[in-house]
Design goal:
alpha+beta; 5-stranded antiparallel beta sheet; 363 residues; 14 strands; 4-stranded antiparallel beta sheet
Amino acid sequence: MIYGAIYIAHNPRDGDNVFKVGKTERSIEERMKQLTSSTSNLGTYSACAYFVVYDIDAAEEACHRALRRYRVQDNREFYELPLSRLVRIVTEQVQQYAARDSIPVIESEDSPPTGQLSASEILKSARERRNAIGNLWDQALTSTILTMSDWLTSIRDKALQAAAELKDEKTMKWEIPEFIDPNETITRFKTVCTVTFFCLFSKKPLELRTSGIRGGIYGTLDLSRAIGKPEVSEMMTGDKQVQFVTWKEPDDGRVGRLQLTAYIENGRPDDRERALKPFPKVTVRATHISYDDYRQHFEESSREKSYNDPIEAFEVFLELVAENAKKPQYDVREESGVFNPRHGPSRPKIHDRGKFEMGPLKH
């Protein structure tokens, strides 16, 4: 491991939002002079920010990995994005490699040695420190809730704008709540925006057999699209009687769903006791929806990634929207023979060939 610095450098000749992110074992001033004097560059480089780390190779690799979607060229360490966002991303990546000062613990001459304190004095001192930490945590949580409120407003406004621009797209359905209380993001993930993707039909949709449980903790079922009379049987779950319902409905062509969710990490009372700093985050979740003809219901498989920057999260979200909408799919489910179960009548075997792109969430 080599001590050094990770730097963010800018040359006006490269453009307002193009920056170089690199490493150096020299002083920052020497490195900027070296970049400026390079025969392959014009203009003068200056350091916008730098971070002293104990492992420059690992820290640089982490930064370049996090910034790969902003890279100008694959073989160069230049990235195009606003400086404020770049600084946030680099700061987050180098945090685990940040150099620490080594200062010995020196007991204050103004306070008596621990051995001279009574048990009640030691306990009182410990409680005072605990209360002080708790007060700081409360202040941090209040600040985080305010930040989350700003994030929710910003993301919702961007989602409404995108939904308006794409309102004529037939393959997607947008769902954006009227309001989200930022305080609710302390205890659970709250969905800020959902986009569901559907295939288009060139022929009559198939009739799909599906099932579900209603009653008790399961709530109600949406049978608005049911064909004919549903089959209902009573069953017990624990001490509750519920209903197992089976019905047919026409295939609506669903193939996937994208969601933006918000959450405050470390915002619970037990996090306060452990003095874990609360912070907001936004998660992009992509869910592939496919029909399982053996179990006769829709199956979902999801991938997700969390971000500390709401703008970056929304950009990834929009990239996934565009990727899944650029090439419409038709009739993704089709009959492919007959399925003969051991018990019960035979039924059509259904093949699902719907595709759903998860882009950067695959990594």
